[in-house]
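TA notes, week 10

Several of you asked for a full example with nothing omitted. So below is the full record: structure tokens for the whole chain, then the designed sequence directly under it. When grading your own attempts, check the secondary structure regions first.
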């Protein structure tokens, strides 16, 4: 039994075979011949003497061209037929020319990246060198010239970019959505981008970029934008947020109702808050709205079924449960939709629209992972300009390139500039060309149009009119505006709500919370010896509590307003002193008492 090989089907042991490698090869032969499904994968693990056969769903699989006798089965004749559309891709799978392998079976193959690399032991050939990359990495131009650490960042930025996410965005009620006003397709694109027609959902614009500093305003990753370009719509987008509510049903025939609440109801917000509601309790379209104003007026039954009035009559007092605009936001009511849920209850959705013009603090990123935060919007007359009067849209600090090794960024700048002059879309598909050849190719186009081969230009200072000593590298880059925006993150409060348990300020922007003064901030004040500021931040403006403490036994007492004297319940003493402590410390004392330990506070004379 020890010499036999165990066979697993979808992780379950189903039997044994004498020769695991031959058995696995037999299954592959049957799959390529169409005897069994093409979705079955088999892997022989020599170390553990087991054969894993997988046919379950949820496996990631990749196509490979089968290599037999040192030659690819995808011959030039078949490729020609494929181009003429006489056959399709599924034909290649059915005829055993191409097969899909999962991660397990990939361990048993010897794959070549290019046809010239095929050797005597080669079993498979990659369909394309870019097949190892996913959708986002394949949509970026020249990723092979960037440092490996930039790829995850750049892929994330693509997912965060604002663009045209759906053509019917004005009919959808997504919880939140961003739509770019003027999306463009990149001048330098990839074969994947074009094949999947990603330009239909473009998520960026072609910026004219100069690699230059600007009086220290774009230190580190900060970027500078031209105000004229912003005014013309560069990076401008619209932000949608949808608010939803429904008339819920409760046990005992009680239910919510969309209506304008009356002043007698619990939680009434004041007449001004409901001023924009129509008779049915729902706001109308195209009305401007500010934070705290009601969008959907809703009246709910009380939490307790009945309440006794002063005359002893049971009265059902309804409460206001309206939907208001979130704190720190404003906009215009874009659309209102009233419908029914599957449970036949009425549902209302209100979509708010607000225009987002680029402002200081907004985040921009190129497809190469060069992210930057907008630090200054400069008037066009103060921006650097070329002899032809071209003013860059964006100024990028050149120090960000060598340290991050995003040379694909430089190639794209040069290529897109050549593409702009030759009015052509250029190809930046990964692994498709050599960098040196590309620089020469793009340089020839630029030289034809009277420019420097390497894209350098003479720029003049907009403030002084003087020519810069150094030539500045200028080109075109596909930049995206990401959804990390100042308007959505700006948070400020002077006073506000506190948590019931700790009496400390609430957390988070939606709850009108404060910004946390953490351990590191505390250490900074301790290091400066600013003890009064430390006390103010962590006590006076947080959870200061005044407590009566017994001078005799050290326990916490209380003030009896009837007898007009403080009392200690532990020893009955009236000799108590008031102290100021953090309410969190008072909570700690209470928790210690629950463990049958009596903490005592020793008081000193003032």
């Amino acid at each position: 039994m020890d010499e036999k090989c165990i066979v697993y089907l979808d992780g379950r042991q189903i039997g044994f075979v004498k020769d695991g490698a031959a058995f696995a090869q037999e299954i592959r032969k049957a799959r390529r011949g169409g005897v069994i499904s093409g979705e079955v994968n088999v892997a022989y693990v020599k170390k553990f003497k087991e054969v894993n056969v997988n046919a379950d769903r949820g496996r990631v699989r990749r196509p490979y061209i089968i290599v037999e006798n040192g030659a690819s089965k995808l011959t030039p004749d078949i490729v020609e037929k494929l181009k003429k559309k006489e056959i399709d891709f599924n034909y290649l799978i059915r005829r055993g020319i191409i097969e899909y392998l999962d991660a397990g079976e990939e361990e048993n193959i010897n794959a070549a990246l290019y046809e010239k690399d095929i050797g005597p032991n080669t079993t498979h050939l990659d369909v394309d060198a870019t097949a190892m990359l996913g959708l986002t990495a394949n949509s970026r131009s020249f990723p092979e010239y960037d440092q490996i650490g930039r790829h995850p960042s750049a892929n994330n930025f693509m997912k965060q970019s604002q663009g045209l996410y759906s053509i019917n965005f004005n009919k959808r009620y997504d919880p939140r959505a961003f739509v770019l006003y003027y999306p463009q397709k990149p001048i330098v694109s990839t074969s994947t981008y074009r094949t999947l027609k990603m330009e239909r959902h473009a998520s960026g614009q072609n910026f004219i970029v100069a690699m230059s500093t600007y009086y220290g305003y774009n230190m580190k990753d900060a970027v500078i934008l031209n105000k004229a370009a912003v005014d013309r719509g560069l990076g401008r987008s619209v932000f949608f947020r949808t608010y939803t509510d429904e008339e819920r049903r409760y046990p005992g025939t009680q239910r919510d109702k969309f209506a304008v609440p009356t002043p007698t109801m619990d939680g009434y917000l004041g007449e001004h808050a409901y001023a924009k509601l129509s008779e049915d309790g729902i706001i109308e379209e195209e009305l401007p709205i500010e934070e705290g104003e009601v969008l959907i007026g809703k009246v709910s039954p009380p939490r307790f079924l009945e309440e006794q009035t002063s005359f002893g009559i049971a009265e059902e007092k309804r409460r206001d449960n309206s939907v208001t605009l979130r704190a720190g936001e404003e906009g215009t009511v874009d659309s209102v939709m009233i419908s029914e849920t599957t449970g036949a209850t009425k549902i209302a959705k209100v979509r708010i629209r607000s225009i987002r013009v680029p402002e200081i603090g907004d985040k921009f990123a190129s497809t190469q992972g060069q992210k930057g935060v907008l630090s200054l919007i400069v008037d066009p007359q103060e921006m650097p300009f070329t002899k032809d009067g071209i003013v860059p849209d964006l100024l990028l600090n050149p120090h960000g390139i060598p340290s991050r090794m995003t040379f694909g960024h430089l190639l794209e700048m040069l290529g897109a500039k050549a593409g702009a002059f030759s009015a052509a879309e250029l190809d930046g598909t990964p692994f498709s060309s050599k960098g040196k050849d590309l620089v020469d190719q793009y340089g020839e186009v630029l030289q034809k149009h009277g420019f420097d081969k390497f894209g350098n230009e003479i720029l003049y200072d907009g403030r002084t009119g003087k020519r810069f000593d150094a030539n500045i590298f200028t080109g075109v880059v596909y930049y995206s505006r990401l959804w990390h925006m100042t308007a959505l993150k700006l948070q400020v409060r002077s006073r506000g709500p506190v948590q019931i348990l700790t009496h400390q300020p609430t957390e988070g922007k939606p709850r009108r919370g404060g910004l946390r003064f953490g351990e590191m901030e505390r250490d900074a004040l301790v290091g400066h010896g600013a003890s009064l500021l430390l006390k103010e931040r962590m006590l006076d403006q947080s959870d200061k509590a005044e407590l009566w403490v017994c001078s005799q036994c050290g326990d916490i007492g209380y003030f009896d307003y009837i007898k007009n004297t403080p009392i200690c319940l532990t020893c009955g003493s009236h000799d108590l002193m008031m102290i100021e402590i953090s309410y969190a410390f008072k909570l700690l004392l209470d928790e210690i008492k629950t463990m049958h330990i009596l903490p005592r506070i020793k008081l000193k004379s003032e």
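The longest strand covers residues 330-340. Use that as a sanity check on your answer.
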